[in-house]
Structure formats: C-alpha cells, structure tokens
Specification:
The structure is a homodimer. Chain A is built from five helices and two strands. By secondary structure, chain A is mainly alpha-helical. Chain A has two domains: about 70 residues, Arc Repressor Mutant, subunit A, CATH 1.10.10; about 40 residues. The radius of gyration of chain A is 18 Å and the shape is elongated. The mean pLDDT of chain A is about 95. The interface between A and B is medium-sized, with 34 and 34 residues. The structure holds a DNA duplex (30 and 30 nucleotides).
Chain lengths: ~120, ~120
Amino acid sequence: MITIDYQSRAPLYEQIVEKFQMLILTGALPPGSQMPSVRSLALELSINPNTIQKAFALLEQQGYIFPIKGKGSFVAENDRLIIQKRENCLLKLEALLRHAREIGVPKADCTALLTRIYHQEVAL
Amino acid sequence: MITIDYQSRAPLYEQIVEKFQMLILTGALPPGSQMPSVRSLALELSINPNTIQKAFALLEQQGYIFPIKGKGSFVAENDRLIIQKRENCLLKLEALLRHAREIGVPKADCTALLTRIYHQEVAL
DNA sequence: TTAACTGTACTATTACTGATAATACACTAT
DNA sequence: ATAGTGTATTATCAGTAATAGTACAGTTAA
C-alpha cells in the first residue's frame, strides 16, 4: 500500500503520515473508506505497531481519519485539507525559489523546469 | 556573522555548513579571505567548539575552505562549487514541483510565484 | 458465548545521533 | 614566552525514534 524510505531523515511515523495524506488527498483513499488496521499495516511494513499507531494518531489529530473502536479507522471528508496542503506546498516552493534566485539559478531554468513538469499531464 | 535556527530539524553543524556555503558562493566571503576561528565562532554563537569544528571539516571536505595549521581556515576558489549547488537546487525544485502538481496546485499559481520572486531583482 | 479482529494505553528498553565538556598536541605570529 | 590558530581524542549527557510486551475495551461473525 505504501513504501518507506529508510534513508530519509524523516522518522517512520512521519513518512507514514505523509504517504496517507497523499493517498487521501488524491482520492486514492476516498472519504468513508476503511484504513488498514494498525496491526496489519505494521505486519505488512515490518514496523512496530506502536509506530503505526503514532502515525494514525497524528492523522486523526489533523482531521484526515477518524477511529471507531473495535471497527477500525476511516477516511474523513474534509475539503479544507487539500486547500491547506496546497497552500503549504506553495510556501515551500516560495522559499526554495528565493534560494534559487539567491544562488544565481537562472529564471529560464526554473520556467523550463516548471513547463516540463506540468506538461506531462493535465493538472487535477 | 551567521544566525542559527534552533527550531529547525537540521543539526547545528549542518546549518553552519549551509550558511557558510551561501556566504562563500554569493561572494560575501571571497576566495582567500579568512574564516572566523573555530573558537571565536563558537563563542559568538554560544556553541561548542567541537560542533564548529565538525562544520568546518565538512566545508573543507566539500572544497569550500582549506585550513592552515596555526594560521586559520581560508576560503578556497572553486568555480565548480556554485555550479554543483545550482544543479542541486534545481533537483530539489523538480521534486517539489512534481509534488505540487500531484496534489493539484494549479500551474498558474507556480508561474505567478516564480514571476514574483524573480521580478524583485535582477538575477546574479 | 466464543474467537478473532479492531483501536487504545502504558511502561520499559534499546539504539542512534547531536551536542557538550575537558584535554591535549602541533603550528604560527607577535 | 605568550596567545592565538587547527586538530584529535575520550567521555558524557540529552533527546527522540523505534521496538517489545502486555493489557483493556469495543465490534463482528461463527
């Protein structure tokens, strides 16, 4: 269902959070659908259940999922999440672009890159 | 001379490395100029000298500075460094742009941001 | 009811890494 | 000589990620 990068500086639980954020925001996991159980996912990823639990607790806290004791966790429906996520992405992009300009990356290189990335498929 | 962000996830020594990379690549510290001493910088930043030493060792390893025992560390001259740095920045930018497209950030928002950032001043 | 699954909570332990502390040595300049 | 450089070494502390093990409460279906 998801993959983990053991080279990353980000902790496992945070990677899990981000992966599921993506799956939910892109609609791969639609609202109302059931999340994998803590134990099954832990088994699948060969990760301690506590680590999964920590990730799910964060996802719940951020409004991505909601738990039902004895049944499982389910994807919540929230339109504001995707908006927040996009705004956050634009903030990161702004910081990176400022840095690029600062160290002398030509504007043309950035525009070319942008065109190339966004040319491959139609945006959502 | 430089400032440290104690909220950042990046370790102190890595922040120091990046700050001096910027100072050197932008020409604020020109080739041949003397770096602050390990001890003085440690005092100024209220950081352990060993941490500064670790940062300087990395800077030397990457070709940014060269040490002379008993005299100090000095900024090296290397044109390839700035090129490598820019390429690395473009790689990060590519990854971030792919992510932006993936979560549905409109292309127009990215182009607008790019224009705004690069409009403020002429690139180096 | 029983069994097997769910989420949740708690404590303890391990492992890793960043950062500090305290020295020590070799070299340079005044 | 003295004070400043870079460099190296060892030890220790602190924070956090991750694991391990156990326990409890609720749901579901045989």
